[in-house]
Amino acid sequence: MFKWVNEATVINLALALVIVVVSYWIIRRIVSAVTGRIIAWSTHKSGGWTQYVGAMAERTSRLLILLMAIQIGLYVIDLNPIWEDRVSHIWFFVLALQAGLWIDAVIQLWARSSMQSKSGHQRSQLTMTMISLMIRVALWAVVFLSVLANLGVNITAFVASLGIGGIAVALAVQNVLSDLFASLSIGIDKPFEQGDFVVFGDIAGSIEYIGLKTTRIRSLSGEQVICSNTQLLQQTIHNYKRMSERRILFSFDISYRTPPEKVAEIAPLVKEIITSVEQTRFDRAHLLALQTNALKFEVVYYVLSPDYNLYMDIQQKINLELLTQLAQREIKFGMPVRSLEFLEDVPVAHRAAPDAPKGAEAASGIEIR
């Protein structure tokens, strides 16, 4: 120590100290001025990549500036190889730390801005927090391993040991990790969001909360249904909140006693009724089939709203108007009919047996169709 001090002159030490102080002051002023302009510029632009530049500028470390000034000052001093190697390690550590701080600031800002989509729908705060946390952990793990590698540590064996330990932990908590990644899949792919009305299996209700392991659904009958995220994603889910319009198909039967000219008036009549109702779009109305007991008509139209109550109001209005219009035209609906034909001459084979119950002889002369 004293031998090294004796080798360096007092003038060189003083000059190095002055250079460090002046360099720090100059660099600090330059960085502050540039940072202030970048922040003001990003605030004025209010969006896009400029906000990330502003966030990175705010996370510029003063320690990095100090190390840069010290590095400049050390150029006037002749250091032995051991100290030069130590200074280079410190310099790499500070650079890696600063790079990590910049990237970490970008990740945090991205997570905050991603919670609010362009359409105004709030994204899952839990999902974005988990994703940003995982990315930040990976980032600082890379920074840590880079510093160890710069110090001469063999990180290959270290990473291999971590991998073996990670596999053991993953096998121990396999079910928990399955639900965790299912929650991430829900947050990223977004098959449904909080507030959506979904139907799967025999369950129908609104999504109340999406957690790490389970999703809570408020059913139509009022109780809360709790379902595992993994099991939920294995179901075929009908999301009715994202339905822009509702396709309606209904049919009705007309009596065979209706004259053909009146039957031909029914399809245009149905079209007129549906088009007169607001928030509907008529598609088609046809005489579908000649059934055994009636003429079957099939009608298709669209309700231009996903609201189920509105659909029921519209369907009721159409049904009532259809009843009124058909009654005015003396058109009757088709009803199931069973005809009884009385036979005057009953064959011997069809006559009742001598030991048949009373009334069987009379009934044997009736043919039911």
UniProtKB/TrEMBL annotation:
This protein's GO CC annotations: plasma membrane
Listed A to Z, the keywords are: Cell membrane, Membrane, Transmembrane, Transmembrane helix
State the SUPFAM superfamilies in the record.
Mechanosensitive channel protein MscS (YggB), C-terminal domain, Mechanosensitive channel protein MscS (YggB), transmembrane region, Sm-like ribonucleoproteins
Give residue ranges for domain Mechanosensitive ion channel MscS: 175-242
Any Pfam family matching the protein: MS_channel_3rd
For the keyword Membrane, the answer is: yes
Query: The Mechanosensitive ion channel transmembrane helices 2/3 domain covers which part of the protein?
Result: 135-174
Under InterPro entries, the record lists: LSM_dom_sf, MS_channel_1st, MS_channel_C, MscS_beta-dom_sf, MscS_channel_2nd, MscS_channel_C_sf, MscS_channel_TM-2
Q: Name one GO molecular function term.
A: mechanosensitive monoatomic ion channel activity
Transmembrane ranges, per UniProt, are 6-27, 89-111, 131-149, 155-177
- Please identify the protein, giving its name as recorded: Small-conductance mechanosensitive channel
Instruction: List the source organism.
Output: Pseudomonas duriflava
